[in-house]
Design a protein that fits this description.
Elements (H helix, E strand, L loop, with lengths): L1 E6 L6 H8 L14 H13 L3 E8 L2 E9 L11 E8 L9 H11 L6 E4 L15 E4 H7 L13 E4 L6
Parallel strand pairs: 4-5
Antiparallel strand pairs: 1-2, 1-7, 2-3, 3-4, 5-6
């Protein structure tokens, strides 16, 4: 399955992200009561922060998930080569479990500087919010779990990632 990625446009994409973060499945994002202007401001803050990036993952040109990356040293202990990751799926998209995570990890590990991805678990999951342990996925663990996918060269604006289903 092929996904493309493009940077989030704070003004153009804010309404879409607003629909996603205010949906009940997005409780982890703590934005259920956010107004559109709140989401626009948050998107603009991310765009202005050189240590925080937001990309939309697209399937056949349609946005199906939001991928935020950040410098994990801001929030957690980290090592050189670490990158933090948050994912938000469109409420309308129901992929194979783990598919979006695999697409995001494939995209991130295409950058040779990325050695490990720091994943903050969903607060609505079995552990309670802010007490959930962090998860780490190294490049070696990721590629050992499934055959290496084909990845096209990344460009500054978009990248295409081919993925195969994998449980997260």
């Amino acid at each position: 399955m092929t996904f493309t990625f493009r940077p989030l446009d704070p003004l153009k994409d804010a309404a879409l992200v607003h629909r996603w973060v205010t949906h009940p499945q997005a409780a982890f994002w703590l934005a259920r009561d956010a107004k559109l202007v709140d989401v626009e401001r948050a998107c603009m803050r991310i765009a202005a922060d050189e240590r925080h990036h937001a990309l939309l993952g697209l399937r056949r040109g349609v946005p199906v998930f939001l991928m935020e990356t950040y410098d994990p040293a801001v929030l957690h202990e980290s090592e050189p080569g670490d990158i933090g990751l948050h994912l938000l799926a469109s409420p309308a998209y129901n992929p194979v479990p783990g598919l979006l995570l695999r697409a995001a990890l494939t995209h991130l590990f295409a950058d040779p500087a990325v050695r490990r991805v720091v994943l903050a678990p969903d607060a609505a999951g079995p552990a309670t919010e802010h007490k959930a342990p962090l998860a780490f996925r190294t490049r070696e663990e990721f590629y050992a779990a499934a055959p290496a996918p084909a990845v096209s060269p990344k460009t500054a604006k978009t990248a295409t990632t081919t993925t195969t289903p994998m449980a997260a």
